[in-house]
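To the wet lab folks,

You asked to see what we're planning to order before we commit. Fair enough. Below is the target structure as tokens, and below that is the sequence we designed to fit it. If anything looks off to you, flag it before the synthesis order goes out.
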């Protein structure tokens, strides 16, 4: 177990980000089974600190992972309320990142559920790139093929057209 003493850094643009980054690195190490965050050195702390640290950890890893890996100690009642709020907001945000990828090649339609998606365009770009011929696209097909935030269309040649759409569920 690794113990971290939380601190407020006055110059920090987004309070709590440094704590998030430290913990994020630690939980990825195989040698670290748990991380304890000790708030005994802080008497008052802005609520945004918890959104940018604990909240982001919950967003990234989920609540079960946090329960298993993180111990929060020596916090006061004001901090407890802010921690609770940060966790609940992160859980809601995490729920709202579920998408369905719908795709067609003109002959059939397929769907795939993506449980956690922060960037639908990235998913579409990956699909587009994976299906682009190695030799690339002819100029006229490259001009009409596209990827945007929620849709993509790939004209592989004069006959094969692939279409994708990301739908929030």
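Sequence we intend to order:
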């Amino acid at each position: 177990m690794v113990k971290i003493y939380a601190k407020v850094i006055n110059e920090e643009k987004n309070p709590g980000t440094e704590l998030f980054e430290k913990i994020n690195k630690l939980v990825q190490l195989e040698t670290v089974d748990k991380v304890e965050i000790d708030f005994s050195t802080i008497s008052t702390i802005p609520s945004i600190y918890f959104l940018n640290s604990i909240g982001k950890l919950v967003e990234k890893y989920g609540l079960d992972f946090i329960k298993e890996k993180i111990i929060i100690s020596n916090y006061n009642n004001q901090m407890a309320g802010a921690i609770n709020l940060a966790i609940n907001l992160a859980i809601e945000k995490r729920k709202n990142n579920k998408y369905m990828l719908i795709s067609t090649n003109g002959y059939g339609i397929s769907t795939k559920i993506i449980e956690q998606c922060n960037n639908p365009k990235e998913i579409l770009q990956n699909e587009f790139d994976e299906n682009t011929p190695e030799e690339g696209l002819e100029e006229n097909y490259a001009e009409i093929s596209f990827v945007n935030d929620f849709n993509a269309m790939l004209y592989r040649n004069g006959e094969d057209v692939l279409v994708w759409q990301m739908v929030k569920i």
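Structural context that might help your review: The mean pLDDT is 90. The CA atoms of residues 62 and 91 lie 7 Å apart.

Thanks,
Computational group
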